[in-house]
Amino acid sequence: MSEKLLEVNDLTTSFKIKGEYYPAVDHVSFSIKPNEVLALVGESGSGKSATAFSLMGLHTKARIEGEVRFQERELTELSTGKMNKIRGGDMSMIFQDPMTALNPLMKVKLQIMETLKLHGTKSKNERESYAVELLDKVGIPRPERVAEAFPHELSGGMRQRVVIAIAIANRPKLLIADEPTTALDVTIQAQILDLIRDLQDDLGSGVLLITHDLGVVAEMADRVAVMYAGQIVEVAPVRELFKNPRHPYTRSLLNSLPSEDMLGSKLHVIEGVVPPLNKMDRDGCRFAPRIPWVPASEHEDNPELREIAGDHFVRCTCYRNFHLNNEETAAESLETGTGGRA
Ligand SMILES: Nc1ncnc2c1ncn2[C@@H]1O[C@H](COP(=O)(O)OP(=O)(O)OP(=O)(O)O)[C@@H](O)[C@H]1O
Ligand SMILES: [Mg+2]
């Protein structure tokens, strides 16, 4: 098996707004090895789902540029037919919004059976009993009854579990999990995370895990990529990222805000949101407007991801302005249970 299961190079996904294309994913590069969990974190609107949809070839109206190599094949060049063989088979996705993933007019059981059929489970009886088994695996009580239900008859948490059952049905080699456990209570969440680990143990599957839950990141991820305004601003192995977050945006996500700047005044990241695609200033450091105290000279004109220590990459020189002087590091706060959502 290739050393790299997935290799993404310069992926740029642009959406048309009032006649013009604006990138929501802007020259994003990363890779995932077999058995590896890469967490993708970032505020709402930073481009995480747009990245996931691009990998799966699910955008219908976007302009996609760059490379997505999966198991040595370039996915962006494949026909729809060939892509359909991969999607839901060797590569599958747990969708953030279960209702967009499920067919409202079709019983749960038939939706799982359809995926199984598309990817080679020939016998109908086998598909039927495996569908119920999968519902049981994702923690659905009385799976035989739920199998006969329509999606709208189920709660949000149940629907999310059905989506997870469909995603793992064909034992994918690459699982893209977009907020897989958000709507679930902690017991079910633990069960789902165990299922993902089982996939890894059995098949050496790689996982792209998109989540706001830093506890889940700490528990599951090998490496973490932090996304802001369509760009990856920091990537590092999980322990390193929690112990030594460098980019001011990462620091604010991890709640370990830098508290001093070079001028000696209090420094913090201003509240705000990722700007809309057509209002975003794309020159220089995109995070600069959220840290207006940092002089322009401290930012790069064209910030690029640069390796600052082994396997630890940061975008823009502005990170050098911040010293981690909180007594409790993000890693410690997670261990003591005070860490929270990104
Ligand atoms: N189909 C689309 N057409 C136009 N703009 C889109 C489309 N999908 C996403 N966007 C825009 O792209 C940006 C990134 O959106 P995306 O859904 O990837 O964010 P996200 O990081 O997944 O956020 P969340 O944490 O809320 O799920 C946002 O500005 C969003 O409005
Ligand atoms: Mg999303």
From TrEMBL:
Gene Ontology cellular component terms for the protein in this record: plasma membrane
Entry-linked InterPro entries: AAA+_ATPase (IPR003593), ABC_Ni/Peptide_Import (IPR050388), ABC_transporter-like_ATP-bd (IPR003439), ABC_transporter-like_CS (IPR017871), Oligopep_ABC_C (IPR013563), P-loop_NTPase (IPR027417)
Membrane topology: Peripheral membrane protein
GO BP field: peptide transport
Keywords linked to the UniProt accession: ATP-binding, Cell membrane, Membrane, Nucleotide-binding, Transport
GO molecular function: ATP binding; ATP hydrolysis activity
Annotated SMART domains: AAA (SM00382)
Family stated for the protein in its record: Belongs to the ABC transporter superfamily.
Record's protein name: Peptide ABC transporter ATPase
Taxonomy of the source species: Bacteria, Bacillati, Bacillota, Bacilli, Bacillales
